[in-house]
Amino acid sequence: MSNKVVTHWKGNLQFESDNPSGKLFTMDTSQEHGGHDSGLRPKAMMLSSLAGCSGLDVVSILKKMKVPFSDFRIDTYGELTDEHPKYYHTVSMEYHFYGENLDEVKIKKAVDLSVDKYCGVMEMFRRFAEVKTAIHYHNV
Q1: What is the largest CA-CA distance in the chain?
Q2: Are 88 and 128 in contact (CB under 8 A)?
Q3: Average pLDDT of the residues in 65-80
Q4: Do 62 and 100 lie in a common domain?
Q5: How far is 90 from 134, CA to CA, in rounded Å?
Q6: How many other CB atoms are there within 10 angstroms of residue 93's CB atom?
Q7: SUPFAM superfamilies, from UniProt (predicted)?
């Protein structure tokens, strides 16, 4: 299966890109690097893509397992190399689950399935970075 996106220069250092869903988004860089800070940063979007891919898996699996939770977020941190071309050499993902009487065993299973089996973006990241994960349970 192939995906195609079209990325169009909009002037200065700003680009607009589409998505197979038809949605558009803007990319730019900081003012200190010559941009207008008017869009998303490409490297940070990679971290968002990683978290989004895994998050979609986890929610889908927990729904099938009928595991309730009231809130869920993933904090993702990327450490860049010092030399150009700068890329993420280490990525840490913290899965935070909120709810009453969280089923920690099933939640861990869902996260593990995403991390080890289903998330294609995770597999891509593993080709160039060490990926660390942790789960935090917030019983409220």
Answers
A1: 52
A2: yes
A3: 98
A4: yes
A5: 14
A6: 24
A7: OsmC-like
pLDDT at residue 1 greater than cutoff 90: no
The Cα–Cα gap between 14 and 16 comes to 7
Q: Are residues 30 and 49 in the same domain?
A: no
Same-domain check for residues 50 and 28: no
Q: What tokens does 125 get? A: 């990241």
Q: What angle do CA 114, 106, 58 make, to 5 degrees?
A: 30
Q: Are 115 and 133 in contact (CB under 8 A)?
A: yes
90 shares its domain with 117: yes
Range of the domain at 46: 42-139
Number of domains in the chain: 2
pTM above 0.85, yes or no: yes
103 within 8 A of 67, measured Cβ to Cβ: yes
Q: What percent of the chain has pLDDT over 90?
A: 98
CA angle 33/36/38 to nearest 5° reads 125
Owner of token pair 């709810």: 99
* 114's tokens: 């995403």
Can you tell me the distance from the alpha carbon of 41 to that of 28, in angstroms, rounded to the nearest whole number?
Answer: 6
Find the CATH number of the domain harbouring 84: 3.30.300.20
